[in-house]
Amino acid sequence: MGKGIPLNDQDRIPWLCNLHDILKRDVALGQHVVLACSALKKMYRDILLRGKESTSLKYEGLGKREEPAEIQLLVIHLSGSLEVISARLLQRKGHFMPPELLQSQFDILEPPSAPENFIQINVEKNLPEIIATITETLKTT
């Protein structure tokens, strides 16, 4: 992405599998975990939840299948228009993702839907409102 080339599924799968393994490890240790990443597709969120067995794509680095992990995942989908998010991205200094790639992110976006466990929050809300919504949701899950 730093070179102006969008990542594809093959680029993301190993990274998502590693994140799943970290989540699984930390949950097994009794920790509550907050993970911030752009899991733009349902398949990506499935990998975070279930690991490598949830992907049908062939990737030689995935190895053998394992039993599904006992991970509860609440997706916080921060939604906003291309214009709003583009304006915010342009204000970032030293960020790895060039603004020119934003459209490619919107192009592959699969917003969460039932039966996924998610809440959707508009990014035009102020930060205290966003935090309060997330906090209240976590108290009831």
Task: Give a description of the structure.
With 141 residues, the chain is mainly alpha-helical. It has helices spanning 9-28, 42-50, 82-91, 102-108, 127-140, and strands at 75-79, 118-122. The longest helix has 20 residues, at 9-28. The model is unreliable at 62-66 (pLDDT under 50).
Residue ranges: pLDDT <50 for 5 or more in a row? 62-66
- Give the biggest beta sheet: 2 strands, parallel
Count of helical regions: 5
SS-derived structural category? mainly alpha
Number of strands: 2
What order do the helices and strands follow? Answer: HHEHHEH
Report how far apart the termini are: 35 Å
**Biggest β-sheet: strands ordered side by side in the sheet:** 1-2
Overall mean pLDDT stands at 85
Shape type = globular
**Share of residues in strands:** 5-15%
Cα-atom radius of gyration: 16 Å
Q: In oligomeric terms, what are we looking at?
A: single chain
* Helical content band: 40-55%
